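User: I'm preparing a small set of examples for a lab meeting where we compare how different chains pack in three dimensions. I only have the primary sequence for this one, and I'd like the structure in token form so I can line it up with the others. Please keep the answer compact; I'll paste it straight into my notes.
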Amino acid sequence: MQSYYEATARERIAGILDPGSWHEILPPTARTLSPHLKALDLPVAFDDGVVIGSGALEGLPVLVAAQEGGFMGGAVGEVQGAKIVGLFERAKAARVAGVVLLLETGGVRLQEANAGLIAVSEVIRAICATRVRGIPVVAAIGGKFGCFGGMGIAAGCCTSIVMSEEGRLGLSGPEVIETAHGVEEFDSLDRALVWRTVGGKHRFLLGDCATLVDDRQPAFRSALAQAVRTGEELELASLEREQRTLDERLERFGAYTDGEDIWRDLGFDKPANVPLLATDALIALSKRLRAA
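Assistant: Understood. Below is the structure token output for the 292-residue chain.
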């Protein structure tokens, strides 16, 4: 089975959508380039690092945007943001079951500064507007660069998030935290610390991602299809539930300084072994602890 972690944006799309159903919008031949990178004499990509289009997911008509981590770490610029927002605009007219975001990004391109920040804010607004119309927006995170910065907020605005153990989700990336507050606060080279802070298993146990899957394209495919089928409309009641959950989490875990402290509180008698558990074993054990 092909690894989601190692795949490119187009390989992920091919592994997730039904064979022969993909239609790309603004492909590389359209040469949709960032004017900012070109002006700075920096490398450009003919699709500006994001692939958008339509297809079928287990028979469900969907729109898809897949970020290419291989280009500038998936960083968002003005054109990339505009392509994603345009996809959501298409969702207004197209009869789709959902919008699927395959996210892999370190955040906004520093070279595009305010233009990139505005682009991310427009993506967030488009996600919420689409959900209000009753169209689920589901995200997959499992790439080498994780999902950080403003797009980490965008992911949190989605109907549902699917992650693998290899995925990482947060606002400020490990390197950013270390740069701002020093290695004493957060050592970005401590891989175990990084993954037990922002990794897929930890995000699943906290409830930030609804589904944890193995690093296999078919596993992502099945989970995303299920998320589209069961996605709820964005309403005030659902927002209030999420806010209560966040308040309760802060009250319960706010004083802890390490993921292992949280896992111990959740009932894992050997929290140091959580990273060693297979995905299915972790999910099963988590369900038993929640039911206890």
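A couple of notes for your slides: Residues 128 and 144 are 27 Å apart (CA to CA). Strands lie at 23-25, 50-57, 60-67, 98-103, 137-141, 160-164, 211-213.

User: Perfect, thanks.
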